[in-house]
Amino acid sequence: MAKELKGVQVFAPATVANLVCGFDVLGMALQQPQDVMTMRLREEPGIVISHADGYDLPVEPEKNVAGASLLALMEEYPEKVGFELIIDKRIKPGSGLGSSAASSAGAVVGANHLLGNPFTKEDLVRFAMNGEKVASGVKHADNIAPCIYGGVTLIQSIFPLNIVQLTAPPMYVTVVHPQIEVRTSDARQILRKEVQLKAAIKQWGNIAGLVAGFLKNDYDLIGRSLEDVIIEPVRSILIPGFDDVKRKSKDAGALGGGISGSGPSIFMLSREEYVAKGVEDVMIDVYTRLGIEFKTYVTMINYEGAKVISEV
């Protein structure tokens, strides 16, 4: 075996998929919240999973997103290996903040470290996409890629996999997670299978504008491009208070934002911290008035992605 270690502790960050207009192709890693995972090599082949949280998720490897990702990695590793995995989920499942991606990515990043890093980051994304298939029925990478690479990523192609890391100017990210669940699989089923050419052209312009805004550090262009004319109008009906949060957040100075992944979380980007905290006040007010429990975060872009923080 490549590298004998007792075990490692891994942090795996929350992510914002789509970034409003980039459905299934754009994603961003956040500094908070993060899942914590402890992994150990086992003498016997196989995977043993346990949870240090209260979410009652499956522990059978084939039914668990981290387990499915590890199985894919193990298929390409030349020796028989085994892993013990303890997952402490601090990103609530069904939050729209890449909870399944964090488990999937954290597991393969930790396993790769324990094995002496034989796999590339692109390999790890491929493996972790198997976890997303367990979660939503689709091998999408818009959460997985930023979770592993950090920062902002563009999925130019899934088959073959082509991930482009994008530079982005410093920005604050304000997130509200209303304590309701929107299942990714359900949020996909309600989407239209066909779109009007006029809407597609508008969307292409926004995606290109957002990427150009990131690369040019052009905050105004970023703000103008944070518009979705295809997905958001359909999915936003599943999220109480969405329209109020978006309108009032922009009035408070946010560059813009929208649904994080499939929801129900909503994110807003801001140039300055005081604006981001003002946006948080808006979010608190909207959901307090609605009588819906919620959790908020004011954070920034995570440029490192999932990482081993200690050996245990």
TrEMBL record:
<feature type="binding site">
    <location>
        <begin position="92"/>
        <end position="102"/>
    </location>
    <ligand>
        <name>ATP</name>
    </ligand>
</feature>
<keyword id="KW-0547">Nucleotide-binding</keyword>
<feature type="domain" description="GHMP kinase C-terminal">
    <location>
        <begin position="211"/>
        <end position="281"/>
    </location>
</feature>
<keyword id="KW-0028">Amino-acid biosynthesis</keyword>
<dbReference type="InterPro" id="IPR014721">
    <property type="entry name" value="Ribsml_uS5_D2-typ_fold_subgr"/>
</dbReference>
<dbReference type="GO" id="GO:0005737">
    <property type="term" value="C:cytoplasm"/>
</dbReference>
<dbReference type="Pfam" id="PF08544">
    <property type="entry name" value="GHMP_kinases_C"/>
</dbReference>
<protein>
    <recommendedName>
        <fullName>Homoserine kinase</fullName>
        <ecNumber>2.7.1.39</ecNumber>
    </recommendedName>
</protein>
<dbReference type="Pfam" id="PF00288">
    <property type="entry name" value="GHMP_kinases_N"/>
</dbReference>
<keyword id="KW-0418">Kinase</keyword>
<dbReference type="InterPro" id="IPR013750">
    <property type="entry name" value="GHMP_kinase_C_dom"/>
</dbReference>
<keyword id="KW-0963">Cytoplasm</keyword>
<comment type="pathway">
    <text>Amino-acid biosynthesis; L-threonine biosynthesis; L-threonine from L-aspartate: step 4/5.</text>
</comment>
<dbReference type="InterPro" id="IPR036554">
    <property type="entry name" value="GHMP_kinase_C_sf"/>
</dbReference>
<dbReference type="InterPro" id="IPR000870">
    <property type="entry name" value="Homoserine_kinase"/>
</dbReference>
<dbReference type="InterPro" id="IPR006203">
    <property type="entry name" value="GHMP_knse_ATP-bd_CS"/>
</dbReference>
<comment type="similarity">
    <text>Belongs to the GHMP kinase family. Homoserine kinase subfamily.</text>
</comment>
<comment type="function">
    <text>Catalyzes the ATP-dependent phosphorylation of L-homoserine to L-homoserine phosphate.</text>
</comment>
<keyword id="KW-0791">Threonine biosynthesis</keyword>
<keyword id="KW-0067">ATP-binding</keyword>
<dbReference type="InterPro" id="IPR006204">
    <property type="entry name" value="GHMP_kinase_N_dom"/>
</dbReference>
<feature type="domain" description="GHMP kinase N-terminal">
    <location>
        <begin position="69"/>
        <end position="151"/>
    </location>
</feature>
<dbReference type="GO" id="GO:0009088">
    <property type="term" value="P:threonine biosynthetic process"/>
</dbReference>
<keyword id="KW-0808">Transferase</keyword>
<dbReference type="GO" id="GO:0005524">
    <property type="term" value="F:ATP binding"/>
</dbReference>
<dbReference type="GO" id="GO:0004413">
    <property type="term" value="F:homoserine kinase activity"/>
</dbReference>
<dbReference type="InterPro" id="IPR020568">
    <property type="entry name" value="Ribosomal_Su5_D2-typ_SF"/>
</dbReference>
